[in-house]
């Protein structure tokens, strides 16, 4: 791999993982305060320790995915558009943590996760046009966010 591409890969992964770090700034206080522990959760709610490793891996896959799209040439219009769509879904990803954990608002977070899910689907579609592997790397992410949507909705219904 060329040094230039290696740097792009590192930057893409770092930016994606940074989204997770920013989200955790809102998640951890809600967990430490006990707010999240007091919520009734659905039967399929996984143990809390699962979320960190899963999200770390998903952010890594997002980083590799966006790198594969980016290396197709930023000067290409379709690459620029696909990166803007990716950026939008990444921002929505961060906002979900702010809304759910920071604002402690599962109802608004559920509304937001619908937009996040749609943005992920849009990212997969635009990435598929320029790099099929980039699109496929986002499939675990959309599956997990679908499951997170179920958890979010269930928590909202069970508690409010």
Characterise the protein shown here.
- 82% of the residues lie in helices and 0% in strands.
- It has 160 residues and is an all-alpha fold.
- The chain has a single domain, classed as Up-down Bundle (Ferritin), CATH 1.20.1260.100.
- The model has no long low-confidence stretch (mean pLDDT 97).
3D shape: elongated
Main sheet, how many strands, which sense, barrel?
A: none
Q: Give the rounded overall mean pLDDT.
A: 97
Total tally of structural domains: 1
State the secondary-structure class. mainly alpha
What is the terminal-to-terminal distance? 52 Å
Helix percentage: over 70%
Radius of gyration: 16 Å
Low-confidence stretches: none
Please identify, by name, the CATH architecture.
Up-down Bundle
Name of the CATH superfamily? TspO/MBR protein
- Strands, total number: 0
User: Proportion of β residues?
Assistant: under 5%
CATH fold-level label: Ferritin
**Subunit arrangement of the protein:** single chain
- How many helices does DSSP assign? 7
Order of helices and strands: HHHHHHH
Q: What is the CATH first-level class name?
A: Mainly Alpha
Quick overview of this protein structure:
By secondary structure, this protein is mainly α. 82% of the residues lie in helices and 0% in strands.
């Amino acid at each position: 791999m060329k040094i230039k591409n290696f740097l792009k890969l590192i930057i893409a992964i770092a930016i994606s993982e940074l989204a997770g770090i920013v989200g955790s700034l809102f998640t951890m206080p809600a967990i430490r305060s006990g707010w999240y522990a007091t919520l009734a959760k659905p039967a399929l709610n996984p143990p809390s320790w699962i979320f960190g490793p899963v999200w770390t891996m998903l952010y890594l896959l997002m980083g590799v995915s966006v790198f594969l799209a980016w290396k197709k040439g930023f000067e290409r219009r379709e690459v620029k558009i696909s990166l803007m769509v990716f950026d939008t879904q990444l921002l929505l990803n961060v906002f979900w943590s702010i809304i759910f954990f920071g604002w402690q608002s599962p109802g608004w977070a559920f509304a937001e996760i619908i937009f996040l899910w749609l943005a992920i689907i849009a990212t997969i579609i635009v990435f598929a046009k320029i790099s099929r592997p980039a699109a496929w790397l986002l499939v675990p992410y959309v599956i997990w966010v679908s499951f997170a949507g179920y958890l979010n909705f269930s928590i909202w219904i069970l508690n409010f």
